[in-house]
Amino acid sequence: MPQQNWSIAGVALAGFVFITFNGSLPASAETYIAGTAGVNFADRINSVAGTGPLAGFSGPLEDWDLQNSITYGAKIGYFPGHSWYGIEGEVFHTTPHRKSFDDDPSTPAFDPASGVHFRVTTVGANFIARYPGRTLQPYVGVGIGAGIAHIGDTATVRSDSDVAAAWNVLAGLRAFVTPKIAIFGEYKYTGATFKFDQAFGDLGGVSGNYRAQHILGGLSYHF
Q: Where are the domains of the chain?
């Protein structure tokens, strides 16, 4: 992945950590760190359109049918005291490769000869509302951030990357197994619009709306 993309992600995460752990925060503040993993049930990339020379293409372009894939990531959160509202920073990664372009049933779900390697790393901040129970904490949230997408060199397309505004909505349930350690399950719906201008070289590129549903589980440690 290009160095500039990692720089954007690093600055965003560092900024959140600075705000979270700034010494001016009250001593009663609750912070937590968490690891999470699960499955990405990726929807199609829809509203696909050409860019550059392909922008004038008269016919509709085919949606990108994506594979389901593993999602994994990390979170860091802050609640002022034992309150109902807080903020959360997160980063998560997934690889919902574009399936083969042909409809041959004998072709694997991903065929390097006609599919596209596709990966997405999302860095964002969420506003969280929760019930502050001592044992069970149902919660909901909304967030914004940056989606860092990359398509790899295959027989079909050239390697290209894009950084775009991303959003998500989520809902989950956290259960404490000790006063400081909890397990949680979470549903997350995410989206972004990516544009790969060099996907087809001199012929132009492609853009489209990415949408994905994630079913996640994880473990958190609360300070």
A: 3-222
Instruction: Tell me which residue of 74, 73, 45 sits closest to 61, measured CA to CA.
Output: 45
- Name the pTM for this structure: 0.81
Domain covering 3-222 in this structure, CATH number: 2.40.160.20
Q: What is the pLDDT along the chain (223 residues), one digit of tens a residue?
A: 444 444 444 544 445 444 444 444 444 679 999 999 999 998 889 988 888 888 876 556 788 889 999 999 999 999 998 899 999 999 999 999 988 765 555 555 555 556 788 999 999 999 999 999 999 999 999 999 999 999 987 777 889 999 999 999 999 999 999 999 999 999 999 999 999 998 888 888 999 999 999 999 999 999 9
Q: How far apart are CA 29 and CA 21, in angstroms?
A: 10
Residue with tokens 């925060």: 25
